[in-house]
Structures are given as C-alpha cells and as structure tokens.
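Appendix C: a fully annotated inverse folding record. The material below is reproduced so that readers can follow the format used throughout the book. The structure is listed first as tokens, followed by the designed sequence.
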C-alpha cells in the first residue's frame, strides 16, 4: 500500500512540475486531428502536425482549440529550477585583534634596591671638625 501511494505521489509530482504534464493533453491532440479529418478527409497525421507545430498557428476559427494541444504554450510551472547545494556553505569572518600583550615587570630585590638609590638624594652633611 505504501509503495502504491509513493508511486502515485511521485507521478503526480513529476507530471505537475515538469513538461510531462503535456502527456495528459494527447487525447486532445487525437480529438483535434479527428475534427480536421472530418472537415478534410484527405489530411494525413503528418500534414496535421506540420500545420500545427512547424509554423505559427494562424488566428483562425479554432485558434483556441489549437492552443490546447500539447507543447503549444509554455507553462510557467515547468520553468522552476531547484538548486540544492551539495555541501553546507560556511562563512568565516576574521576578527582582527587589536590588543597589546603586556608583560609583567618583575623586580628582583637583589639587583634593584630602592634603598641604594634613595641614599643619593640625602642632604649634604656638614663637616665641622
């Protein structure tokens, strides 16, 4: 049952979205040929097809019927194009970094002594002897 429903839905989809919907119009083609055959008994199928498909259809009494024939008008639904990307599209935005990497200043007490430099700025001592 599922297979039958799947085939039915797939065939409906294919005939509605593609040019295969024109296949359903072939009975109209046969009926229209028989109408012409009743008017002109000597007309062949090739002459009928040549008159209706090789040249532009003249605007005669059965012009509306001529436009119902298969492949006479372009159906806009058959022009639908479906594009599916094969791989996901990924965008990468590179954010520039503007930060300055700072290093911590380390003071080694053995090398840099605050008391040593502070002795330079002492007031002079008087030498009264």
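Designed amino acids, in order:
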């Amino acid at each position: 049952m599922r297979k039958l429903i799947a085939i039915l839905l797939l065939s409906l989809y294919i005939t509605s979205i593609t040019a295969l919907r024109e296949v359903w119009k072939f009975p109209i083609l046969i009926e229209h040929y028989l109408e012409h055959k009743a008017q002109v008994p000597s007309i062949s199928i090739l002459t009928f097809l040549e008159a209706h498909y090789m040249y532009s259809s003249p605007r005669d009494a059965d012009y509306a019927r001529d436009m119902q024939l298969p492949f006479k008008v372009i159906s806009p639904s058959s022009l639908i194009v479906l594009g599916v990307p094969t791989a996901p599209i990924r965008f990468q935005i590179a954010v520039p970094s503007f930060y300055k990497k700072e290093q911590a200043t380390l003071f080694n007490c053995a090398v840099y002594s605050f008391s040593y430099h502070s002795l330079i700025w002492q007031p002079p001592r008087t030498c009264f002897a």
